[in-house]
Amino acid sequence: MRIRLKPLAGEEAGVEGPAGLDGEGDAAAAAGLGVGIKHSELGARQLVDKVDLRALHEGEGDVVHQGDGAVALNPVIVRLAAVHEVELILKSRAAAAFDGEAQHELTPLFFSEGANSAGGGGGEGQGSGHKRRDVKSMDSLYEAYERGMEPQPPHLEPRRVTVSMHLAPWGEDFRRSRGRRHPEADSATRTPFARDRDRIIHCTAFRRLKEKTQVFVAHEGDYYRTRLTHSLEVAQIARSIAHALALDDDLAETIALAHDLGHPPFGHAGEDALAAAMRPYGGFDHNVQTFRVVTELERRYPRYDGLNLCWETLEGVVKHNGPVSRRLEEPAWLPIAAYNARHDLGLDTFASAEAQVAALADDIAYNNHDVDDGLQADLFTVEDLKDVPLIGPALDGARRDYPDLDDRLLRLESVRRMIGVMVGDVVGETRRRALDAGVGSSDDVRALGRQLVAFSPDLAEDLARLRSFLHERMYRHYRVNRSRSAARRILAEMFDVFMREPEVLPGEWSTLAATLDETERARLVCDYIAGMTDRFAVEEHRKLFRLDV
């Protein structure tokens, strides 16, 4: 752990003392110093608890008595100052301390026995320009910490949080982000990618995902996945894979949360209906709509439209499935071409490894939860799955280990195992590819010319067979087809009415529609419909076509 200190106004005061932790003593040292971690994204002032150096008054060298035991530390430079930054540099085993429930506890930082954390003292060059003084000249750094909690005068420059995990050389380092189209001061409590994630979670389009179809229309039952629960599952898997690969898990999670923001109501049936209606007016593509949501359609800030996300996040949103430059001449993709002319996202290359992780996490999530939902909906049975790759072996293993499981727990346990198999395969195959390709930077990932994050060939073949089963037995099931047929009619009929009679659009939509030509009005109507939830679309259709509503 590196504790960076910012000198207080007035007399410069530096002391010799322990602030760096190194080697196997880190666990005890961190606990002994009382350095507390609330959460990896909180601000520096909230991260550091008491660091009591009074024991050094007794002349015991580099042994500090804190609590019940003594802790051996390497002496580094510590200044009597307000805490400026805290940087956690953790290697793989130590990083596990941030997983699961532990990351939310208000206890001192701790690692499992024998864990190693990297780093050490206050960092190179941090002591330059300040006079060192003997530690005996101060009682406790805690007093300085308390003073640092006072509000900063407004003229002081905002501090940049630098809490970071050990990062693979080919991962995205937020400190080298290419920034935002509209420059903004850094957040004092979050990395740029974490800030992007929070903006997505708070946006209107994200909330509406709660009642947008994944496979089953939202009103068919509260068990089945919606676009929101799907996006959350994708984000969890993406974060886990990114963590295992030592990538920036905030960035992977952010792209995963954003990837379906542009989906219209009723899933792919809704997209088909809008694509058909918009064919004379420039087309419709949910990936393009997602990009327009985060760069244009969300209006939450006074200085710009959209969410003003980082370059790396936008790149991941638009090309997480690979290069898209070949699509820029398609009518539906013209908004991407226009934006790229103003803010180049490198559309002819692959995206970052984190974006590729999000894409694979999407595959893992939807194939697994579609098996779960299909079984729950009785579209097929457990016996139907026994010879299907991936899920068949998972079912056999669960039965073997737990012969008395009921059908519900058998289903859940088997899906859990299948997720684990697929995640493990992605991690192993990606590590192999990275080693073989010799990638040493995120730019190497983009220039590789092929996908870095991927399933192994064997698993990809098994996954293709599982998808074939789901298409045949689930996506084309007559019950699903009936819902999709009704959904297409609802959206097509609403689009036609709004185009012919824009005065029936609500409020500001109607006012704006009256000022537009036909092509522009079509895009406005499309945006209005694409933003609807399933429930709102059904109700709006009833209001348009029934007088008794």
Topology:
Layout: E1 2-7, E2 14-17, H1 26-33, H2 44-47, E3 63-66, E4 69-72, E5 76-79, E6 81-87, H3 92-95, H4 141-148, H5 192-202, H6 204-208, H7 227-244, H8 249-258, H9 267-277, H10 286-297, H11 311-319, H12 334-342, H13 353-376, H14 391-401, H15 407-437, H16 442-447, H17 457-475, H18 478-500, H19 507-513, H20 518-530, H21 534-545
Antiparallel strand pairs: 1-6, 2-5, 3-4
What is the averaged pLDDT score? 77
Q: How would you characterize the largest beta sheet?
A: 2 strands, antiparallel
Which homologous superfamily in CATH is the superfamily of the largest domain? Hypothetical protein af1432
- Low-confidence segments, given as residue ranges, are 1-160
Overall outline: globular
| Tally of structural domains | 4
In what order do the strands lie side by side in the largest sheet?
A: 1-6
SSE succession: EEHHEEEEHHHHHHHHHHHHHHHHHHH
**Number of helical runs?**
21
Structural class: mainly alpha
CATH architecture of the largest domain: Orthogonal Bundle
Helix content: 40-55%
CATH class call of the largest domain: Mainly Alpha
Task: Tell me the span between the first and last alpha carbons.
Answer: 63 Å
Strand content: 5-15%
Measured on Cα atoms, how large is the radius of gyration?
27 Å
Q: Enter the CATH topology name of the largest domain.
A: Hypothetical protein af1432
Q: What's the number of extended β-strand segments?
A: 6
